[in-house]
Structure formats: C-alpha cells, structure tokens
Amino acid sequence: MAVRLNPYLNFQDSAREAMEFYQSVFGGELETSTFAEFQMSENPADADKIMHSMLTTDIGLVLMASDIPAAMQGSDPGAGPGATISLSGGPEDDDALRGYWAQLVEGGAVTEPLAVAPWGDAFGMCTDRFGVGWMVNIAGPGAS
C-alpha cells in the first residue's frame, strides 16, 4: 500500500489568504472550515480563523493549512512560515514547474534563481509572500 504524505502549514491569522493564493498558483479545489463552524474555540477572536483547509489539485498535490488559535499564539506551530516545500518533476513538467515558480516568487523573495545547477537539473529556491520556502527542481534533459 502506498503512503501519501501531504504538507500541512500553520499560520498566524493568514491561512485563508495563503490557501487562496496557493489555489491561484496550483489550481484545484479548496475546502475551508473555521473554528466557529465546529464550535472549537470559546474565544471570539478565533471564530473566523481557519481550523482546517485543504487544497486538492489536479497534479496530485494536497496542501493543508490552519490558523493558530489565540491561546497558542507565540508557541511553535510546527510547519508554517519558515517551512520549506519541495516541488520536483521531469523535463516534461518544465513549463508547469516554471509557471508555479513565477507565481510563487511574486511578492516573495528569490533565494537561489531557477537556473541550471551543477548536477544538470534546473533548480531554484524562493520564499513566498507568506514566509514559506519553496525549492523547485526540474530534471535535466535525458533524465528518466
């Protein structure tokens, strides 16, 4: 049986905005649930925060995220801003991966430009506008 691992990000009050951005980059269907919808917090400040969201894309990426409730603010939320997600594919994915790269760097910062690396693949690193790092690797010609 195959195991599917999906990134889960935590945000300080920007999960909805971040997930809508990722939907604009990767497409797919976005589902969101707030703390109020599930009566999961007595703090009114949490009512409209995202308790759970899931973006399911046509390319097989499932990205999930939530906001950190007020009672946990300041604690280590786990994966979130500062986390890094890697996207990789073969030469046949070149156009798609370069398109994702172009959108992810908008409003963010390029750490390592997407260019041919010493190992022959195109590789780049960036941080998006939400503080999440992305590494993109596109296998070079002749890769299988």
UniProtKB/TrEMBL annotation:
Tree of life domain: Bacteria
Q: Where is the PhnB-like domain?
A: 6-136
Q: What InterPro entries does UniProt report for this protein, alphabetically?
A: Glyas_Bleomycin-R_OHBP_Dase, PhnB-like
Which Pfam families does the UniProt entry name for this protein?
3-dmu-9_3-mt (PF06983)
Q: CDD domains of this UniProt entry?
A: PhnB_like (cd06588)
Provide the protein name: VOC family protein
What lineage is on file?
A: Bacteria, Bacillati, Actinomycetota, Actinomycetes, Micrococcales
